[in-house]
Amino acid sequence: MALDRLRGQEAVRDSVLLPLRYARMASSPWAYLRGAAAVMAADLAAAPHSGLTVQMCGDAHILNFGLWASPERQLLFDARDFDETLPGPFEWDLKRLATSIYVLAGSERLGESCAGEAAVAAVRTYGKAMRAYAGMGELDVWYDRIPADVPWRGLTSEFTQAATDNIRKQSRKRTHHGTARQLVTEEGGQRRISLDPMKRLDDGLTHEQRVRASEQVYDTYLASISPHLRRLVDRFRRVDAVRQIVGVGSVGVRVWLHLLEGDSGRQPVFAQAKQATASVYEEFLGPSDFANHGERVVVGQRLMQSASDIFLGHMRVDGFDYYVRQFRDMKIIPSGPEIAGYLPQFAAACGHALAKSHARSGDPAAIAGYIGKGNAFRDGIVRFARDYAGQTHADHADLRTAIATGETRAAERGW
C-alpha cells in the first residue's frame, strides 16, 4: 500500500514534523506526488526496465528543474534536486517527469489536451537531445550548457521580455546580499537570522550541544571539500544558525540554515545543511557506493549538472548525514502558476536538461538506440504517465481518508 511506503520513511525523519508532512501532502494530488517519491520508486521497480544505467535524479518532477548560477555567475537551466539520486534505469526519471506534467496540469486546470502536449514535448525533446549527444565527443557532452532563455524560446516577444525581466529581478533578490536584506536583523550589535515562524523550528539544543555540533560541522565539512576551497571557507565565521522547515517531500528531514560572514565584513553567505537519508531507490537497485548519503547527493549533483555550487560538500553530525550548499544564490525555482501559460515549452526544456544529465553519466548512443526513431517509446512513456497520474489521484484520496478517520495524524494546517 502507498500509505505503508510513506510510513516506512517515518523512522529517519523528525517525528515532530510528521503531521505537517502529511498535512502538506494531503493538500492536493500535486503536493502528494512531490512527497511520494518512495511510492513511485516501488511502482517503477515492479515493472521490467531497459537496463541502461545513468545517474538518475530520482525525483525528476517538472518543478525540480529551474535556473541555477554557475561559478562564473551565469544563469543556466538544469535539474536542481538530487536528494534521491542514484545510478538506475534512464526511463525511470523520464516516467516521473511525464507523470508530474499530467498531475501539475490537472492542479492548474489546464486540461487533458495541454497535459498530453506537454508530456509529448518532454519525451520527444529528450529523445532528440539524446540523439544529438550520441553524435558528440565526450568532452563536448560534458561541457554542454543550457542557457537560461531556453524555456521561453519561440514564445511571443512580449512574453519573453516579461519572463526575462522577472528572471533578472528574482536573480538580484536571491543573491546573498538580497537574502540578507530579507532575513537578517541586528540584535545588540549581533546579526541574527530572522525566519518566518512557520519556516523555523526550535532545535531544543543546549549551549554545549550546539558547540559540539558546530565542531562536527566544521571538521567533517572541511574534510569533504578541496584544499583550495578550504582556504576560502577559512575566511568566514559562523554568525548564526537556525533550523528550517522546507518543501513538501523534505518535510521531516533536518535542515539547518547558517549565516556566515567574511573577514571583510562585506560578504554575508548563507549555507544550508540538509539531512540526506538513503535514496528511495536503494531498496530496489542496491545500496549506494558511498558511506555518507550527503556524499551520494553531492557526487550525483556534480555528475548531472553542467556547473555546480562551489561550496557543495557533505558532513556527519551526531550520526546524521548532511550535504551542504549555498542557500538561494541566484537559484530561481518556478511555480505551477508561473509555467502554466507555457507548459509544453517548459516541459521540452526539462526533457533537454534531463537528456544532458543522463548523457554525462550514461551511454547516449545506447539510450538513443533504445528509444529509436519512431513514436513507440514516446507513446509508451506518455501512456504510463497518464495512467500513473490517475493512480496518484487515487493514492492522494486514500491519504485524505486515512487522515479523516484518524488513522494518520496530520497538522491542522499545511503551512
User: What gyration radius follows from the Cα positions, in whole Å?
Assistant: 21 Å
Number of domains as seen in the coordinates? 2
Structure annotation, total helices: 17
Note the beta-strand portion. Answer: 15-25%
Order of strands in the sheet with the most strands?
Answer: 7-8-9-10-12-11
Mean pLDDT over the full residue set: 88
Compute the number of strand runs. Answer: 12
What gross morphology would you assign? Answer: globular
Tell me the series of helices and strands, N- to C-terminal: HHHHEEEEHHHHHEEEHHEEEHHEEHHHH
| Percentage of residues in helical conformation | 40-55%
InterPro entries: DUF2252 (IPR018721)
Organism: Paractinoplanes pyxinae
Pfam families: DUF2252
Protein name: DUF2252 domain-containing protein
